[in-house]
Amino acid sequence: MGKPTNFITFRVNDGEKEILRNYCEKLGRTQTDVLRELIRNLQKENITLD
């Protein structure tokens, strides 16, 4: 994959941010890495929207 050139910004509440922070800390991964993996897994699920 090429070098990332896009940004996505969205709002979360304090509790959601803390969940993500804790998850990343336990895995030793960055938030960006975890969110990129989530997006890639959506593609792998091969979900089609009609």
Poorly predicted runs of 5 or more residues: none
Helix count?
2
Percent helix: 55-70%
In percent, how much strand structure appears in the residues? under 5%
Q: Which structural class do you get from the secondary structure elements?
A: mainly alpha
Shape: globular
Tell me the number of strands. 0
Largest sheet: none
Distance between the termini: 28 Å
| Computed Rg | 13 Å
Assembly form of the protein: single chain
Mean pLDDT: 90
Question: Summarize this, please?
Answer:
This protein is mainly α and 50 residues long. It has helices at 14-27, 31-44.
Overview of this protein structure:
This protein has helices spanning 14-27, 31-44. The chain has 50 residues and is mainly α.
Characteristic key phrases:
CopG family transcriptional regulator, single chain, Ribbon_hlx_hlx, 50 residues, mainly alpha, 2 helices, globular
List the SSEs and their pairings:
Blueprint: H1 14-27, H2 31-44
